[in-house]
Amino acid sequence: MKVIQNYIDGKLVGSGREFADVNPAEGNIIAQVTEADSSLVDAAVQAARKSLRGEWGHLGAQERAARLYKIAEVIEARFDTFVAAEVADTGKPISLASRLDVPRAAANFRVFADMIKTAGLESFQTETPDGKSALNYAVRKPLGVVGIITPWNLPLLLLTWKVAPALACGNAVVVKPSEETPATATLLAEAMQQAGIPDGVYNVVHGFGPKSAGEFLTQHPDVNAVTFTGESQTGAAIMKTVAASVKPVSFELGGKNAAIVFEDCDFEAAVTGISEAAFLNTGQVCLCAERVYVQRSIFDRFVEALKQKAESVRLGSPLDPATEAGPLISAKHREKVLSYYRLARDEGATVIAGGDVPRFGNSLDQGFYVQPTIYTGLQESARCVKEEIFGPVCHVAPFDTEEEAVKMANDTKYGLAASIWTTNLKRGHRVAQQMNAGITWVNCWFLRDLRTPFGGAGLSGIGREGGMHSLNFYSELNNICIRL
Ligand code: NAD
Ligand code: 6OD
């Protein structure tokens, strides 16, 4: 059986405790993972700290950028290995991992390498009371050791989204990937070695959250900052832990995202777009639209067209290039999603599509599949309309006026993403600017430019990453004031 190990100070490190890595498509164990106890987490943090005093701590931005480009090249050279590892861990279709997850991992390194090479800082000529002046300018320094904790839905994409800017800024990192998807974080360690990243700069500790590697990392006194992507409740728990040592945090958390479809939309494009927004990655993208508001004049036609889309999503083996949707991540997560499918019925929903578990008549029946599901008819106050489900499911509700649609879309404690579907340019701008969401797409969804601010309001997060926002989070900016 394959063993996935921790990676500390340039070496693979085992431990006395292991847990199983399960393939969600067939429910079988594909590897054992070594769980880091508090002493291994401490060793990883100390290795990271030590690396900052060595070669890495003395490299300039140009040289760090050169190594980041090299990491991107190694990921591309080992593309199939990364895809296979991600597919085995997550059960996502090979087509999706090949077009989204692995290319984005390489792009994350390239974008932040580009940015750190050209990033400028502000300076001010300051008038002083004696009629003379002073010059203020800022310098960028690394924060030190950054703790990075990531979820299972886009494991490599979301890990590298944080590792790349942290390294670009000269930090050393200790990453704790999700216990559900440990493989690509350890694989990335090999890429780091091949790219000439010194030992100790990138460390991986495996394990769970509370009383395990996740908590040991966030409470470690020598970790200078924590960046986390995951559930809002977990963010709250981490915030309590880090409060004691007053560390900077960046949190990218859950969502209950709305899509608004106006009667003047490009109908086919909107149906295709909403189908993607609801069902991509089996609905396990924080940006997915679980609430769809459709103008009443096109409501019935839209629901019928979306039903056709949901019923034509090709579920199957992740390894089949024709498969469009794989399983959910785990038996536990499937039970959560199915509990919402039951709740929706109890809350009075009309089931338009899906609502159940598919049957394959082969080994995939041991996997954690659910059908893409559409509901209508729920009250806006229903739990299924309020709570993040994180599965391939959306509720579609009608609206009459733009004001009503905006009000319904914003009636949430989350504030991550929204999408608006209209051919009226003025309306697109007007409505987008009223959305309480970190990102609003007009006539598209999950179209990313990595230089833009990314993050959420309310329960969806704290801070922004992306472009200069990432560079500023992962840096300590020191201002220098010189009397002239
Ligand atoms: P999760 O919060 O359960 O786990 C995320 C990570 O946190 C895992 O590595 C886990 O081991 C660790 N963890 C759990 N408890 C911890 C603790 N007390 N201390 C330290 N670490 C702890 O999230 P998940 O189920 O893996 O991912 C799904 C969630 O992530 C959804 O809510 C989704 O919306 C959210 N998400 C948000 C974004 C975003 O960019 N906003 C992106 C992807 C996923
Ligand atoms: O595209 C990104 O940069 C990003 N952080 C996506 C998050 C997706 C959530 O599942």
Main beta-sheet annotation: 7 strands, mixed
Rg, Cα atoms, Å: 23 Å
Individual helix count: 16
Q: Structural class per helix/strand content?
A: alpha/beta
The low-confidence parts are: none
Describe it:
This protein is of the alpha/beta class. It contains 16 helices and 21 strands. Strands 15-16-17-14-13-18-19 form a 7-stranded mixed beta sheet, with helices on both faces. Helix 10 (267-279) links the parallel strand 13 (257-261) and strand 14. 52% of the residues are buried. The model has no long low-confidence stretch (mean pLDDT 98). The structure holds nicotinamide-adenine-dinucleotide and (2E,4E)-2-amino-6-oxohexa-2,4-dienoic acid (6OD). Residues 149-153, 158, 176, 178-179, 208-210, 214-215, 218, 229-231, 234, 237-238, 252-255, 286, 388, 390, 416, 456, 461 line the site of nicotinamide-adenine-dinucleotide. Residues 149-153, 158, 176, 178-179, 208-210, 214-215, 218, 229-231, 234, 237-238, 252-255, 286, 388, 390, 416, 456, 461 line the site of nicotinamide-adenine-dinucleotide (NAD).
What's this, in brief?
With 484 residues, the chain is an alpha/beta fold. It has helices at residues 38-53, 55-58, 61-77, 79-90, 94-118, 155-168, 183-194, 213-218, 232-243, 267-279, 296-312, 331-346, 383-386, 402-410, 425-434, 467-473; strands at residues 2-4, 6-8, 11-13, 18-23, 28-34, 123-127, 133-142, 145-149, 172-176, 202-204, 225-229, 249-252, 257-261, 289-295, 350-353, 373-376, 393-399, 417-421, 439-442, 461-462, 475-483.
